[in-house]
Design goal:
- By secondary structure, the chain is an alpha/beta fold.
- The chain folds into two domains: 134 residues, Four Helix Bundle (Hemerythrin (Met), subunit A) (Up-down Bundle), CATH 1.20.120.420; 215 residues, Rossmann fold, CATH 3.40.50.
- It is built from eleven helices and 16 strands.
- A hairpin with a 4-residue loop joins strand 1 and strand 2.
- Helix 2 crosses helix 4 and helix 5 crosses helix 6.
- The mean pLDDT is 97.
- It binds 5-S-methyl-1-O-phosphono-5-thio-D-ribulose (MRU).
- 5-S-methyl-1-O-phosphono-5-thio-D-ribulose binds next to helix 2 and strand 9.
Length: 352
């Protein structure tokens, strides 16, 4: 499913498969400027940390195009800041905007047309790179799953949350591609239902056996021995290995620890934020109450009753058996393992 984020040469815009309507309808949304890109990110037309990063990279190019004319550099600077702040938790958004800015700083001689062409190419490169990294996560992650495993996942960390293939679902796809028989329990993931709608949609399409469970069935399913491993994605991993992911993930991890089920996180290095020392420093998005008070257009809570809609929580590093990255499976203690993965990558990049 590498088609859900598409650059359209013909329309000179970014086309996104609108995830708000899946699996019922396959509608497309056109990002034509910064405002429409921010809207797509905030309303979750597109969501999932790496997919947000790829969209933001194209968003920088759209911002550059929009900023044309006298004073374009100053206008562009403001548009990039607005874009970077569209959602707070997934660090891939900031990572992508900073990467585009850094590339511009190295080519500061470019005129407006030159920067637009350069950034379109770089956004396409980031898009392709994410596809490649997810495959590597799949290849490394295949080793943590055994033939016959039933894997629980929370939210959607699949093709729809990345450029293609997925991170947590990349691990599952990697194991299936390696010839293992794997079935999946997708937690429904209230309130936006990423598990029930998106994970089930993707896996069912691929013919990978999947059952959807209510979020609150987790304890019973583990107690009955129906879950062999848990694999989830991440929106931001702190330097010590604490991992923010969709609300409810830390509860799954606590239950996994209680029942002795290994709990893995899968994410590219771009999701690891070395500037954030621990999970306590990760900003948690607080979304509109309407996502909780309503299911579709139907109101389910009484008028005037307040709700919580924190979108993410943090799983402490000590509950994580391994972090599957494009550079292999990092094992505890994660602080040194993360530092080593980055040094190794930086050394390889410097040698090229
Ligand atoms: O609010 P969302 O749908 O953007 O949250 C997504 C998640 O929590 C995913 O698990 C995470 O971004 C990893 S995506 C490979």
């Amino acid at each position: 499913m590498d088609w859900h984020i598409q650059y359209s040469d013909e329309k000179a815009c970014l086309m996104l498969l609108d995830q708000r309507y899946l699996p019922g309808r396959e509608d497309w949304y056109a990002c034509t400027d910064t405002q429409s890109t921010i809207y797509a990110l905030q309303t979750m037309v597109v969501r999932g940390a790496p997919a947000i990063g790829v969209t933001a990279a194209y968003g920088c190019w759209l911002a550059a195009r929009e900023a044309a004319g006298e004073g374009w550099r100053e206008r562009l600077d403001q548009l990039l800041t607005d874009l970077e702040n569209a959602r707070p938790t997934a660090v891939n958004l900031r990572w992508a905007v900073r990467r585009m800015r850094a590339a511009w700083a190295e080519r500061s001689e470019l005129d407006h047309a030159g920067l637009c062409a350069f950034w379109l190419e770089l956004a396409q490169h980031i898009h392709d790179e994410d596809k490649r990294l997810c495959r590597l996560i799949g290849t490394h992650g295949a080793a943590v799953l055994d033939d016959g495993d039933t894997v629980m996942t929370h939210c959607n960390a699949g093709a729809l949350a990345t450029a293609d293939y997925g991170t947590a679902l990349g691990v599952i796809r990697g194991a299936v591609d390696a010839g293992k028989s794997i079935s999946v329990i997708a937690n429904e993931t209230r309130p936006f239902l990423q598990g029930a709608r998106l994970t089930a949609y993707e896996l069912h399409k691929d013919g990978i056996p999947v059952k959807v469970a209510c979020d609150n069935a987790c304890s019973l399913l583990m107690k009955r021995g129906l879950v062999d491993k848990v694999v989830v994605g991440a929106d931001r991993i702190a330097a010590n290995g604490d991992a923010a992911n969709k609300i409810g993930t830390s509860g799954v991890a606590i239950l996994a620890r209680h029942y002795g089920v290994p709990f893995y996180v899968a994410a590219p290095l771009s999701t690891i934020d070395r500037e954030t020392p621990t999970g306590d420093d990760i900003p948690i998005e607080d979304r509109t109450p309407r996502e909780v008070t309503h299911v579709g257009d139907h109101q389910i809570t009484p008028d005037g009753v307040e709700v919580f809609n924190y979108a993410f929580d943090v799983t402490p590093a000590e509950m994580i058996a391994g972090i599957v990255t494009e550079r292999g499976v990092l094992r505890p203690p994660f602080g040194p393992a993360i530092a080593a993965a980055f040094s190794e990558r930086d050394a390889e990049e410097a040698a090229v």
